[in-house]
From TrEMBL:
Keywords: Cell membrane, Membrane, Transmembrane, Transmembrane helix, Transport. It is a multi-pass membrane protein. This is Carbohydrate ABC transporter permease. InterPro entries: MetI-like (IPR000515), MetI-like_sf (IPR035906). The chain crosses the membrane at residues 46-70, 113-136, 148-172, 184-204, 225-250, 281-302.
Amino acid sequence: MTNVTTEPATAEPTRARRRRAPAEDVRDERSIISTMDRKSPLVRGVVAVAGGLLLVALVVTCAGPLFWLFKAATSTSTETLAQPFGLWPSGLHWENVTAAWSTVRFGTYLRNTLIICAGSWFFGLLVATTGGYGIAILRPAYAKVVEIAVLATLFIPGVISLVALYLTVVNLPLLNVNLLNSFWAVWLPASASAFNVLLVSRYFQAIPRELFEAARIDGAGSFRVFWSLVLPLAKPILGVVSLLTIIGAYKDFLWPLLALPDHDLQPISVALPRVESSTDLGVFMAALFVSVVIPVALFLVFQRQFLRAAGSAGAIKG
């Protein structure tokens, strides 16, 4: 009879641990500091100090200019010029903020900015979603040609098309309407973003085709598929496009300067540089501070939605 030797039940887990050991060693070797080095108190102390210094440097770099702007906005002009880094020698001067609303007419310019941002956001989403839907979902015979043409416009510098765009706004083709000194002159060019159209179309292409086939079998038309199926699934990318569009419209300077020569229609980005020379420094700094705080506050309020949208964009297939 043949003797059969049976290995203990613990032999297989032992071999598995041996097989996993090299992988763990590789993971340790990939880091700058190995696991053994981290056990040293000196190494842990150096890492903690370096991390603290890096955190302080980031805070100073990011929040330092905003804090100084707040300091200048609540100080007198003499204090800002004589002691740029002095912390309120004569106390906080909140009257600069109230003076900015009356002297600089900050409220009027803020209203114009919000109108421009709202219109650019609405028409930008309209063009991006319908254009992306046509290229990625409807896919007509000429869809590839349109996609290549849209992509080609990204390689054209905006300064080159500035004169042609201005002449188009002065005399709108077919309608023969002059759009200068109207918000339409800013809304329409801002909505025609090739980057947003391509970004949305790439996201739509990641949606499983089986969903559209099932919807069409149930009798849904193209508009019903777009409104009830595509848009609800596209909330992440719509959040990203909304953020990019609003920020771009808020900080745009050159085109609103050309399209809105009327001072009563100009946004903050155009009006504040114009009134700088005729405004008290403290009041002007207060107006700058409020204009900077608004987008920062909006991001802090909606940061969870923005980060979730940016992180989940394109994650449909995953």
